[in-house]
């Protein structure tokens, strides 16, 4: 059996600005749980606690504490950010996403009052689920309009729909 040699944890010393920033991060209400947890790990490490004590106090593994202690020692505050995750890269480029958003907002399909996901998918050459993800990311709801429209199907009766809000050009979340 090979013996594992325990490595000594890196000593963390914080500047006044770094400590103030990490304290604000831990106390802030609208911050991700992971970000606050990393900041707390670094603060406790700077106070001289060992990895086992920090892990027990925060409720994470020693490996997690060691990882964030090492990243902070190497990269300082920049090391506390998440690294890119694995996964397949996007197959739909930004130019194609922009074209779908512009087409949704500025054009009307022939013979209909608004775009459906299937119609837009056919017109743009992507899947219907991709259109749904793009519309959701940009908070687009083509079936809700801001003005009254006459339905071409029932020309004798008037149908109208009102919008509950304006359409944002920026995505509200990642798609």
Counting DSSP E segments of at least 2 residues, the number of strands comes to 0
- Indicate the radius of gyration in whole angstroms: 26 Å
DSSP strand content: under 5%
- Identify the quaternary structure here: single chain
Counting helices, strands and paired strands, the structural category is mainly alpha
Low-confidence stretches: 154-169
Q: How many domain regions?
A: 2
Put simply, the count of helices is 7
**Fraction of residues in H or I helices:** 40-55%
Order of helices and strands: HHHHHHH
Indicate the mean pLDDT: 78
Shape: elongated
> What is the terminal-to-terminal distance?
49 Å
Largest sheet: none
Notable features of this structure?
175 residues, elongated, 2 domains, 0% strand, 45% helix, 7 helices
SSE map:
Blueprint: H1 16-27, H2 33-46, H3 51-58, H4 62-75, H5 94-106, H6 117-124, H7 128-137
Helix pairs in contact: 1-2, 2-3, 2-4, 3-4, 6-7
Task: Walk me through the structure.
This protein is mainly alpha-helical and 175 residues long. The chain has 2 domains: 16-80; 91-175, no CATH class. 45% of the residues lie in helices and 0% in strands. The protein contains 7 helices and no strands. The longest helix has 14 residues, at 33-46. The protein is elongated and about 70 Å long. The model is unreliable at 154-169 (pLDDT under 50).
In short:
This protein is mainly α and 175 residues long. The chain contains 7 helices and no strands.
